[in-house]
Amino acid sequence: MMNGNGKRSIGNEYFEGQYMNNQKVNGSYHYKDGSLYTGEWYNNEADGLGENTANGVISEGTFVQGLFTGTGTVTLDDGDKYVSDYWHGNGFIRGTYYKQGKGEGVVGRYSHQIFTPLRKVENEAEDKLDKYTRAWIKECNKAIKKGDLDSLASLGRFYSRVDGLRHRGIDLLRQGEMMGNANSIFELGRLYDYEWYGLLDSALKYYERAAALGSVEATYRMGIIYDRGNLKNAKGEFTNYSHVVRNPDKAKEQFKKGAEKFYIPSLNELEYLIDEDNGGAYMKGATLNNQKKYQEAMPWLEAAANYRISQACFLLGQIYYLGSGGVPVNNEESTKWFIKQGDLGNPEGYYRAGLSLSVAKQYDRAFSLYEKAIAMGSREAATSLASAKSQIKQDAYNEWAVRELEKKRAAGIDIYGNGGGGNNTVTSANKPVSKTWCSECHGSGKIARIEYYTDKMSGLQSGRTVYDNCGRCYGKGYY
After folding, report:
1. What is the DSSP letter of 444?
2. Cα–Cα distance for residue pair 334/313, rounded to 1 Å
3. 209-226 pLDDT, tens per residue?
């Protein structure tokens, strides 16, 4: 086993430099075709800062698993030079071209051996933006001028996904990074994760920084990377340029951080791993549920619920709520399972239970559950709470209107105006009363009804109040 400096030949090739535990660490590798790499190594591959010379082309910068990628300089055999902000694949998204390596240089994009001046690239990309996107960009820029770093991150994220404007996005995200904005740092990690050859090692470094600044989405992505690792293809080759190996324990640790902040994607992934550790009862039950074999699914789902899988509680609540597959409708049972889902950290459960109780006009219980869901970050619950309060006011008004109607009837007032729906002046005692109550809308001009609809995603039925115009009074001034 080699440690320290040394030289080792492999056929017509040889490496000269530093070894540690028989692994190359830093040094020069001379290839049989005459090319030469000098720089850092990892896992016996060119990895880190280095310089590669091949066929007269010199590449200086960052290498990952033998691939030249990242900030660097490429000098061609004719002396022309490209200095790029980020080189990847067949070129770079922005860099400066120097003819014969001299002069001021031209900023542009190099792709598939074609260099295009940046202004032309930007013009072509901007021409494709619609008026709504342009308006949104304008509003973002206004907010950025006022110091809104999250708007800066949003605009940076948008530009980073638009071909021809990616360099703008990276510039904005790097500005946010320098100012300590978690969203900007997360988005830079996402670029390494998704866009740039799956450079998971670099992505993790950004995600770790973003997570330390409070980004719950960063903890989720870290969990995904540790859960999946760098997958291998049929030949045993890594599919991404990284050295991350699967580590379910680290994945659980990151997913748990997100779940504790009620981030549902993290909670779901954590539960998948827990289910895997406990024999996969939830996945078996969910599969049967998707096959509409509801009664067969229920024992599996109940077993999963017993080891705290909130998604199993949701499916059980849904089965009882809809009466699926011959299972009788049971609102109390469905509410019980939805509440248990909420108790396990998923606000969707409290929200669904609140909906069910609102339809049944059990508002006190519904409000309590909505408020729990809101405290856990559910926007849907906030909307439903406001809607339920509005319905209570409408119900109270309708009850008051009916009482007023009964008072008039008891006083002997001709409330119907000769049966014509309130279009005549009616007298009570010696005092004239005009525009009497309509027998259909009781003076409101609107008739309330409950319209039921089915949520396409969950299959759950919900109710909402709809107001129709009164056929007798609307537009006639009788209310």
Report:
1. S
2. 9
3. 999 999 999 999 999 999
